[in-house]
Design goal:
The chain has 200 residues and is an alpha/beta fold. The protein has one domain: Rossmann fold (3-Layer(aba) Sandwich). Helix content is 32%, strand content 34%. The relative contact order is 0.18.
Length: 200
C-alpha cells in the first residue's frame, strides 16, 4: 500500500504541476528563410543566352544544422534552438544565389546543382562558404571562396576569397536574417561582374 500511495502522490504532483504551467507554455520554434534581394541593372534591355550553373555549396559543419548560429566570442557560438532555418542552408544558399544572378545578368537560364542532365552548362560557379553568421553586435560576416569554371573544365575566373559585412537593422532574428540576405546579394553582384567579363 505504501508503494501504491507513493505512485499516486507522484502522479498527483505531476498533474498539479502541469495545471499550474497551463496550456501554451511551450515556446514555439520560429522558422526563417533567406531571400534574393539583388536588384537588376538599371537597364534591363540586354539579355544573355548564357547557361549558368550554380554548383553545390560547401559549408562548414558549424553551419550545416537547422539552428541559426550566432558567434558570441572568438571561440564561442550560440545555437538558437527556437530560431531555425526553414530549409538547410546547403539548399537555400544556392537557390538565393541563382535568383540573384538571374536578375543581375539578365537570364532565366540559371540552374542549381544537380541540373538536368540534358541541359548543357556554359559556365559554372563553385562556392565554398567559410563563414556565414552574425555576432552579438548584430553584424553579419560572410566569407566565401569561389571560382568560375567553363564547360570544358578550364577556369574562367581563378579561385578567390571574398568577404562581406552587413549590420542588422535591429537586434531581432528577422533583421539578422535580412542582413544575411544582403550579404549574399553582395556576393552575387561580384560573381555577376566576373561572369560579364568571362562570358563568351
Amino acid at each position: 500500500m505504501d508503494r501504491a500511495h507513493a505512485l499516486l502522490s507522484c502522479a498527483a504532483a505531476a498533474a498539479l504541476l502541469t495545471g499550474c504551467l497551463g496550456p501554451g507554455t511551450t515556446r514555439p520554434t520560429r522558422l526563417f528563410v533567406l531571400n534574393a534581394t539583388a536588384a537588376p541593372p538599371v537597364s534591363t534591355a540586354e539579355t544573355t543566352d548564357l547557361r549558368l550553373g550554380v554548383g553545390r555549396i560547401s559549408l562548414p559543419e558549424l553551419l550545416n544544422r537547422p539552428q541559426i548560429v550566432t558567434r558570441t566570442g572568438a571561440n564561442e557560438v550560440l545555437m538558437a534552438n527556437f530560431s531555425q532555418w526553414a530549409e538547410p542552408l546547403e539548399r537555400s544558399i544556392p537557390s538565393v544565389l541563382s535568383e540573384n544572378l538571374a536578375r543581375l545578368i539578365g537570364t532565366d537560364r540559371v540552374s542549381v546543382y544537380p541540373w538536368p542532365t540534358p541541359m548543357a552548362i556554359d559556365l559554372k560557379v563553385e562556392i565554398a562558404v567559410i563563414r556565414f553568421e552574425g555576432n552579438s553586435d548584430g553584424v553579419v560576416s560572410l566569407v566565401a571562396r569561389w571560382r568560375l569554371v567553363r564547360a570544358s573544365g578550364s577556369e574562367a575566373r581563378p579561385l578567390q576569397t571574398s568577404s562581406y559585412a552587413e549590420s542588422a537593422a535591429s537586434g531581432s532574428t528577422e533583421a539578422l536574417v535580412a542582413a544575411m540576405s544582403r550579404a549574399l546579394a553582395s556576393l552575387s553582384r561580384d560573381i555577376a561582374s566576373a561572369i560579364a567579363i568571362a562570358s563568351p
